[in-house]
Amino acid sequence: MEVQIFGLKKSSSTRAAERFFKERRVKIHFVDLRERPIAKGELARFTQKFGLTALLDVEGQAYEKLNLPYLRLSEEGLMQRAITHPEILRLPLVRLGKHLSYGQNPEAWAAMVQG
C-alpha cells in the first residue's frame, strides 16, 4: 500500500499529511509540485471527483496575487494556472488507489487507510 501525496514542502497541510501516513506506516510517494508539476491527467482525476472550484484556494494570497478573482478564465485556463502555480490549490492532493482527497482532511485519510 503506497499513498501519493502531491504538495509543497513548505506547506503545513502537506507536512501534516506526510506525518499522518508515516505514523500509520504507510509508504509515501511524495511529489513536490515546485520541482515537478502535476500531470494534467492527474489533476483531471481530482477535478472529475471534486470539481475544480473545490480544489482552488480562492481565499488564499496566491489566488489574489495572480489576479484570478478578476480574470474570466475557462476551466482549461484555470487548470493550466493550477499546474504552473500549485500554491492556488488546496494542498495536499492525496491518492491511495482509487481513493482521493484534497486539503488537510484527516478523516478522509483515515478512511483511505482503513480501506
TrEMBL record:
Domain of life: Bacteria
Transmembrane regions listed in the UniProt entry: none
InterPro entries registered for this protein in UniProt: Arsenate_reductase-like (IPR006660), Thioredoxin-like_sf (IPR036249)
Family: Belongs to the ArsC family.
Name the record gives this protein: Glutaredoxin family protein, arsenate reductase
Gene3D superfamilies with a match to the protein in the record: Glutaredoxin (3.40.30.10)
UniProt xrefs under Pfam families: ArsC (PF03960)
PANTHER family in UniProt: ARSENATE REDUCTASE (PTHR30041), PROTEIN YFFB (PTHR30041:SF8)
